[in-house]
Write a structure and sequence with these properties.
The chain has 155 residues and is mostly helical. The chain has helices spanning 2-26, 65-80, 94-98, 105-130, 149-154, and strands at 36-38, 44-49, 56-62. It has 5 helices and 3 strands, in the order H-E-E-E-H-H-H-H. Strand 1 (36-38) and strand 2 (44-49) form a beta hairpin. Helix 2 (65-80) packs antiparallel against helix 4. The protein is elongated and about 65 Å long. One of its GO terms (biological process) is defense response.
Length: 155
């Protein structure tokens, strides 16, 4: 009797921890896309594990999470094909689809870093034109300060 009771509670508690881990992975604010992570100093990096191997392919370091995610998507598509679960499925470029056959790790890294660097350059050029802070949090106003007359005229 005691064994059956303990078996039931242990399986229930292990499934409960698995569910909480899945919920944590889904709601991580610092990881907006699959396959990327943020360094302490604010750069976004991407890497992918090679199929059936323990080694990883380094895909580069980028200033925006979108660029890192696009590099990851390119590498994932080269490794897994059309069945891959991508961050941006609508953004796969046709030349990647055409050259899908027998790519080495170096070729995959080269293609992914080209895509990521292109996205990073386009985003930094767009931010430079608009004058916004790329990859930084918006400036927080000092709530103890009275509003200036210039800001009231804009409204």
């Amino acid at each position: 009797m005691e064994g059956a009771c303990c078996t039931t509670t242990s399986s229930t508690s292990s499934s409960g921890t698995e569910m909480s881990k899945k919920k944590q992975r889904q709601h991580q604010p610092n990881k907006p896309y699959r396959g990327i992570r943020m360094r302490k100093w604010g750069k976004w990096v991407a890497e992918i594990r090679e199929p059936n191997k323990r080694s990883r392919i380094w895909l580069g370091s980028y200033s925006s999470p979108e660029a890192a995610a696009r590099a990851y998507d390119t590498a994932l598509f080269c490794l897994r094909g059309p069945s891959a679960r991508l961050n941006f499925p609508e953004c796969i470029v046709e030349d990647v689809v055409d050259e899908l056959h027998d790519l080495s790790a170096a070729d995959i890294r080269k293609k992914a870093t080209e895509v990521g660097a292109r996205v990073d350059a386009l985003q930094s050029a767009g931010h430079a034109r608009t004058g916004s802070n790329a990859g930084r949090a918006p400036e927080k106003p000092d709530l103890n300060e009275y509003p200036s007359p210039e800001s009231s005229e804009d409204n």
